[in-house]
Design a protein that fits this description.
- The structure holds 2 protein chains of 2 kinds.
- Chain A is mostly helical.
- Chain A has 2 domains: 3-69; 82-322, MetI-like (MetI-like fold, Orthogonal Bundle), CATH 1.10.3720.10.
- Chain A contains 14 helices and no strands.
- In chain A, helix 9 (217-225) runs antiparallel to helix 10.
- The longest helix of chain A is centred in the N-terminal third of the chain and has 32 residues, at 91-122.
- Chain A is globular and about 75 Å long.
- Chain B is mostly helical.
- Chain B has 2 domains: 19-96, no CATH class; 106-325, MetI-like fold (Orthogonal Bundle), CATH 1.10.3720.
- Chain B has helices at 19-39, 41-65, 69-74, 89-96, 105-136, 142-151, 158-182, 192-214, 219-227, 232-261, 264-269, 279-289, 294-314, 316-325.
- The chains are: A mainly alpha, B mainly alpha.
- At the A-B interface, helix 1, helix 2, helix 4, helix 5 and helix 6 of A face helix 1, helix 2, helix 3, helix 5 and helix 7 of B.
Chain lengths: 323, 330
Amino acid sequence: MTTTDLIGKIIQVVVGLAAFAAVLGLILFFIDRAPKKGRDVIQLVAFVLPAMILVAVGLVYPAIRTTITAFGDKAGNFIGLDNFVWMFTQPEALITLRNTVVWVILVPLVSTIVGLAYAVFIDKSRGERVYKALVFMPLAISFVGAGIIWKFVYEYRPAETDQIGLLNQVLVWFGQEPVLWLQSDPINTLLLIVVLIWVETGFAMVVLSASIKGVPIEQLEAAELDGTNAWQRFRNVTLPSIRGGLVVVVTTITIATLKVFDIVRTMTGGNFNTSVVANEMYTQAFRAVQPGRGAALALILFVMVLPIVIYNVRIMRQQKEIR
Amino acid sequence: MSDNVVDLPIPGAVKPRDTSFEAAAADVGKATRVKRRLTSRTATVVALAIAVIWTIPTFGLLLSSFRPEELIRTTGWWTIFQNPGFTLDNYRDVLFSSSSSAPQLGSYFVNSLAISIPATIFPLVLASMAAYAFAWIKFKWSGALFVFIFALQIVPIQMALIPLLQMFTTALQPVQEQIHAAIPIIPEQTYVQVWIAHTIFALPLAIFLLHNFISEIPSEVIEAAKVDGASHSQLFFRIVLPLALPAIASFAIFQFLWVWNDLLVALVFSGGTADVAPLTQRLAELSGNRGQDWHRLTAGAFVSLVIPLIVFFGLQRYFVRGLLAGSTKG
């Protein structure tokens, strides 16, 4: 990077911010001086319209366009359901769908269970904050960074040399041969799933930990006086009272899992039968120049996410009302 | 700053009860804690194991990034005591080396900052204005419009990528070329596309969350200011913004990290050159093309992690709240 490059970049940012501030400043300046008659309408428009225009142009219209594109070929001619037929018949596309299903089952399940167990085990223990920070930290990291971190763990070296990847080293310690993990189908998909579990467990743990703190202590004590053991108390008192938190965690992680893209892109690029819907959508639309297929995959993603988001939102609203 | 500085709605969280009860609970907690330590040894062991497993991968990468290239390539980081070695060369190489084979992350780091800061400010300002209007200006269909905006969250950004890119190419590209012709220091490919894309994708969630907060400002405060003759823009700047600042700060952190860590939007809208592309894009590229250059990948990964980790450890409370409130985004 040369100094001129840097100056050019700084100018861009400064000009961008200044232009934004100037436009907003002008809008706000004029609405205060708007004629008395109709001032309310003008003010309203000034406040709401910028965001509305952006959302309409950048989300609503594109979503409609994508839906239409999904029923067209490369040139945009209407071809009916062919793109969807491709998705549900071609072996590569079917593997993508299969992988997505495996991701969606395993990631929410494992992260929630591990996150919950961890939250329960460290609850009120000494150093709870440190414990939490350690598991929560991956959530701050980009998926790309997480992908590189785990690629290093899975790194392969031929058997006669020293291993530099931890997983293969563990195998060697147990007298096994090292494995080319990321190229071995189907275990490579599971290993990619581990990365997302590693990230999402922190999320599950923090939310569930907050829920656990809300379990009435009186009930727990009453149960303890009744001579129940720790597991029974967890089953019969804690678990029912954190149900809302659990639903939010599972649905939120499910949505994130359906949209997983960066991990697959960074670690295998979707090769070796590891592709998932979001990654295949990108590949088809922007690499293979098959906008119709890309759009069809985006539409499938939308259809899969839709019911979960609606359910999630309803639960969140209910919880808000209870509070 | 007191305890209730931020009040974004957080899934699953329970508001604290009144303090007298809390104090009592703390006493009980102390008593049970003593008992706990004796009885739940297995739990402690399991928790410890999880904590260690969760930390080791990051730790191994961090340690490796300070080892000489030769050692990274031939020995595992766990043999550091048998094969000692410490160097900052990897970081020097990825950040400042100008050789064509080097990753030259310096300029990508600048890009990440140049993308993230405006892409955090723009949507937050626009969203808080819209949220204010939805909360405090009465108008026809305000409810319906708000629900519609809220519902837009269900549209995955994948649905918007292709048409948005087409629009940018037809509408923005010529303008950018003209600017480049007039001012050569500004490259043909600019940050504008990425900024706009991130702003648009952030708006529905931002409007929704900030509305929740802004609508809870006591109406007496707003009414009193109105009686004193304050206009809407005065109300917005003097009263609503300062009061909503904690919520805005939480969401700002979330949005900043989201943009900083994003790969998909960058891949589609940045063009992939050192002029615009952020760190994540460069790293993904390196990981794909030169997956064996571990001295570069380890150091490079940590260059990209530094800012998020500073935010995480420095602003943990805001970070947690922002992240939890925004966790369904994407």
